[in-house]
Amino acid sequence: MPSTDLPALLHARGLRSTPQRRRILDAVRDLGHASAEEVSEHLAPRDGSPGVDPSTVYRALAVLEEVGLVARTQLDRKVPSFHAVEHGGHLHLVCDGCGAVAEAAPGPAREMAAEILSRDDFVVDTGHLALRGRCARCRDR
Question: pTM, whole model, 2 decimals?
Fold first, then answer.
């Protein structure tokens, strides 16, 4: 969903479209997967552009998540990572050795989710699924 849809989407929910919210959504899109701290660092003042206060970043990410433009995934064991919803449709493969994050096709997770739904009557959110393990480089060490 392009940034130009942001004002209408927020207005429909009774929320304002602010320059900070637009910049934060653009930063999430630029970064792919990023913590709130990384988004804040990405928006740090440089080349005459104003920075965005970290508390504004946290609040804006919550609003963008609420309206369905940003999704939260727990890639790191400590802090959540955010990505644009339009970037969805993949699994996150997180290496416990080096911390690298790779993406994989969601097919196997959808099959697993269907089996869990059938067996346990539980719906798995495969759009926010992070699988932990070891990448090839760390396994070879």
Answer: 0.74
